[in-house]
Design brief:
By secondary structure, the chain is α/β, with parallel strands linked by helices. It has eight helices and seven strands. The two termini are 28 Å apart.
Length: 240
């Protein structure tokens, strides 16, 4: 089932996601810290740790947003990181971070569609995606594109929300996602649907073994799933 930010809008999901992130980009980072109580930083660190042993030289961060994941990936000491995103608004925030931290020689941002990327086959040693795969309009196509641009033996690391199954975390999580997150999201982001879309997209996302099956069908090997923080978030990895 496809979930769009605004089901009443006739635009396709890709267009709606782009518009939504353009509109909330200025408040996105604050909301992330506020609504996750800062634990999103820990999740990003753990996800990047999955690449420490591979020592990638060329890294592509898909759905890079405002750049926190790509900046965290600097710990890997790569030669180059490319932040790739559909939203110009999000990349403007990212570009300001690059300028402020003087990271222009290390990180480059490119605007584009993750399902039709402008990179040659076998370009990157690693591809990362943080909280972005559930926004793909066509998940198999997006994963196939990632597989295409990865070098042989290259590694994919996906960080994504998931749904805890155990009491009482499941009950608290559902209450938080249904009531607390949309309320504060609307209040701070000044956007009617962005933070109702988030829980709806998480509910619809094929998590756990289902997502591993997508990786399998996209020809990834050695794919794994690792839940974090009582199953609120998950790390998925796969190799070409």
């Amino acid at each position: 089932m496809e979930v769009k930010p605004n089901p009443q809008d006739s635009k396709n999901k890709k267009e709606q996601v782009e518009e939504m992130f353009d509109q909330i980009s200025g408040r996105y980072d604050f909301l992330n810290r506020f609504l996750s109580v800062g634990i999103d930083k820990l999740w990003r660190r753990k996800a990047i740790d999955e690449l420490v042993q591979t020592k990638p030289k060329m890294v592509l961060d898909v759905a890079a947003g405002t750049g926190d994941f790509a900046i965290e990936a600097l710990r890997l000491k790569p030669e180059k990181i490319i932040g790739f995103d559909l939203s110009e608004g999000m990349l403007k925030v990212f570009d300001k971070k690059i300028a402020d931290k003087k990271l222009g020689s290390m990180i480059e941002t490119i605007k584009g569609d993750s399902e039709n990327m402008p990179f040659a086959d076998n370009t990157f040693d690693a591809v990362t995606v943080a909280f972005g795969v559930r926004n793909f309009e066509n998940l198999p196509k997006g994963l196939s594109e990632i597989y295409r641009v990865l070098k042989p033996s290259g590694k994919l690391v996906v960080l994504e929300f998931s749904k805890p199954a155990k009491f009482p975390v499941k009950q608290f999580y559902n209450f938080y996602f249904k009531y607390i997150l949309p309320f504060w999201g609307r209040l701070i982001a000044k956007h009617k649907t962005a933070y109702t879309y988030l829980p709806a997209s998480v509910q619809a996302f094929p998590e756990g073994k289902e997502f591993l099956e997508y990786l399998h069908k996209s020809n990834f090997k050695n794919y794994k799933h690792r839940p974090l923080t009582f199953g609120i978030c998950s790390i998925y990895t796969g190799e070409k």
